[in-house]
Amino acid sequence: MDVGALLKLPEPVQRPSMTDAVFEELHRQILGLDLPPGTKVSEVDVARSMGVSRQPVRDAFYRLSTLGFLTIRPQRATVVSPISEAAVMQARFIRSAIEAETVRMACERLGQADYVALDALLDQQRAAVVARDAVGFHALDDLFHREICERSGHGFAWDIIRENKAHMDRVRFLSLAFASQDALDDHLEVMAALRDRDAPRAIAAMHVHLSRIKLQVRRIRGENEAYFEGAPVQDI
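The structure corresponding to this sequence follows.
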């Protein structure tokens, strides 16, 4: 008899930590520009407003700073980071390289259950476009890309993408005011290529989709110059 097996405790139920809750709320507010670039944020004020101690706020601030959303300056105010156009272009480059490979692999590996799951996400995206739900569409957009990474067998690729796309996310969110239908149409084209197992078409569709940011950032910067830092950059 395996006594160790008898004594093994059940796995604990994983619950979001207080740090996670603070992080997600601040992430939502920064992404949605409820806290626009340049806004000063205070550990004390956030802790008070959310009814938590300062430690989870401090931890959430650090996580947000590593993503590029916050600039923490010792002995000075912490501020929401301005959008870096250079960082947007770098994120586009990273995503294009990685996601070209994930859709190529997805063409080989996806099956009927995967198509059903991705089609369901696209149906939800259609509904979000009709409802003009930018927050909902942005989350579903991310989920579509993440699911392709995971279902292709390369879920770790999404972790790399997420670590590098904070500045790109704010531009993408702003672009949904005028380009959500374009994003949906791009996803439908990617999906059609995946279903046909046409890797060159899927890669081309993903490149078109992710390259739209190059024109969008110019338009958004022209309308919201104060949100950006530095001079416009050449494509990377």
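The chain has two domains: 18-80, 83-229.
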